[in-house]
Structure formats: C-alpha cells, structure tokens
Amino acid sequence: MDPCEFYRQVANRAARTPAKLGQAPLRAAQIATADPGMTPSEVVYEEGPVALRRYERQVPADGERDVPLVIAYPFINDPSILDFAADRSVVRSFLEDGFPVYLVEWGDPSPIDRSLGLGDYVDRFLSDCVEFVREETGADAVHLHGYSTTAPLVAGYVGLYPDSVRTLVLQGPPLSFDPTDGAADADDVTGMDLFRKLAANHDPQQVADAFDTVPTPLLEVALALRKPVEYTVTNPLRLWDRFDDDAYVEKYGRKLSWLRGGPRLPGTAYREFIEELLLENRLLEGTWRLNGRDVDLERIDVPVSLVLGREDQFVPRDASVPFLEAIPSEDTTVLEFPTGHVGTSIAAEAHEAGWPQVREWLSRRTGADESAPS
Description:
Blueprint: H1 3-33, E1 41-47, E2 50-55, E3 69-72, E4 83-85, E5 88-89, H2 90-96, E6 101-105, H3 118-137, E7 142-147, H4 151-160, E8 165-171, H5 192-200, H6 204-210, E9 213-214, H7 216-226, H8 228-241, H9 246-260, E10 265-266, H10 267-279, H11 282-285, E11 289-290, E12 293-294, E13 304-309, H12 322-326, E14 332-337, H13 343-346, H14 348-363
Parallel strand pairs: 3-6, 3-7, 7-8, 8-13, 13-14
Antiparallel strand pairs: 1-2, 2-6, 4-5, 9-10, 11-12
C-alpha cells in the first residue's frame, strides 16, 4: 500500500473513533436484539425433539404450486439463516413464488434422547414429517431440500423412500468423504480434509459417552479452526471499522444470533455421523444401513439439483458432485453461486441470481410433466 494512502486511512479511522465510542451502547443493544427468522410461521407437528414448522402461505397472481417444499436444516445450527432478512430470505422467496414451505427443526434433545441415532433422524423423524406434509397438502410427493450436514440424511431418506420425493435439492452438501477427492497430496488440508483429520484423531465413542447430547460449540470448533484468524480477529475488526454503518451492524447481529442458536446432537447420532459418514464414507460406498435397511442409491432417480458456493471453503465442489455419479437420475444439475458456504443463504448475489434459478428449476418439475430435463 502507498504510504500516503496508509496514513490517510489511519487518520480517518482515528477521527471516527470518538463517534464510534459514543455509539457503543446503541450498537451493542442493536447487536443483542438483532434477530433473523421474521417470516410468520407456526409449528404444526412435533415428535421427540423435532418440530415441523409451516410458513404462512402466499398465493401469487399465477397461483400456488401444487407440490410443497420441505426443508431439512443442518442439525448443528439454527435454521433462521434461511430467513435472514426480508430481502435475503430463502424461505420467503419460495413463498412468494407460490410454494407451500415447511421446515424441519431438529431441536434440542434431552439427556434421555442420547441413544437417538441417524436411523431415528431419517427413518423416523424426517419420514414422519414428510408424511405429515403429504397428508396435509394432499400431495403425492414433496420437493425435499437438504442443507449442509443434513444433506447426507436427506439423500439417505430418498434412498429409502424415493416415491415420497418429487425433486431433491442439496445446498452446500457434504456427500463424498473420500479422502482422495480433490486432495492435492497427503499433507494438503483443504475442504473436508480438515474435518476428516480432526475426526480421525479423536474417539467419537468417548465423546458420546462424555456427553448425553453433544454441545454445539464442540460441533462447530472445526469451523473456527478452518479460518481461525477470520473468526477471532478479522470479523471483530471489520465490525469496528463499520461500527457507524447501521445496516452492517444489523447484519452482523443477525449472524451472531444465528451462530448462538444451534441445537445439540445426541451422542449416538454424533458417533454414527463421524464413523459411518465422515470416516467410512458409507453413503457413496453403498454400505450405509439405517434401522437395518440398506440405503440404496440406485433408487434415487428423481431430479437432483446441487446448490454450491463457488468460494465454499468448508464443502468444496469435490465433496458434492461425486454423488451425481453414484445415482441413476438423468435429470441432474449443478448451480454454483459466487459465494461461500453461508453466503449461499444470505449473500446478495445468491438472492439476485442464484435462488431464482433454483425456483425456476423446481417450478418446471412441479407439474405433471416435470420429469423432462432442461
């Protein structure tokens, strides 16, 4: 940087500091009260720790869609990121396009739920939620949307119940845990490699034994380790630099609220996710069993869309696209947004160009002749 420009920026920041300090109480209150998830909704079904939320329907001029959308959110975060703000809400965008929208909230399990496994989450909770939606709407099948860590569970569900699903949308999905996918060399720690190495260097059974339900901070530690400087230094400094920007502070507060809201995970489900998916790659290896039943990828011949972030450093493309090669569906597409992992939900670019493509893709597969690829 040119020395003159450097000193100019330093002087500018120094001059703004007193005003920022004066705003501190107001900004602190704004951050503390910022809250995503403002679209009206109600819980319409509950089972164990899981709740099914139905959003208030909107009927556009061209009418409501016949096939509902069921979103299964990641089990380590709060789903409010999909309803981040009025102009950046994945949920609201689908509602405004006429889709009935439901969202599966995994909820906080109690200590007596510690034995709940992935079979319970897929073959019981998710299955019952989908059946509730089908009965309430009269639809033969649903559009099923799996986000991030829940994508393997959603894919597993379709491998068990393909007739219940019209289309499958997987957003930022970690599906292939093959250590050879995308790795430059054995020492290269990129993408899913860090998560895999962290998992391989601890005993998930000990974690399951130590915690009835595994706390969210433990589940998210790998995220912070992936970009430690950004999480601990860059983001706070960026907030201070834009402390007098009301819109930026509000957005920062909403993201902070979302990060604080994640549920815990039963110890058994945690151990199974680590061992069966992350370490043994059973989904793509074709060896995954849920409640004694084989998850058969050969049964997944519904239209499938992968929604990826081109700059996603947590779930790179190589952790997602091999799934399309493992299923027989001939109607598949990959939609890449110019964002990172979380940005696929909240970035302006995602809502300006990305999600309209997803809605159009779903709309063409909502009617009786939806099966034709395009």
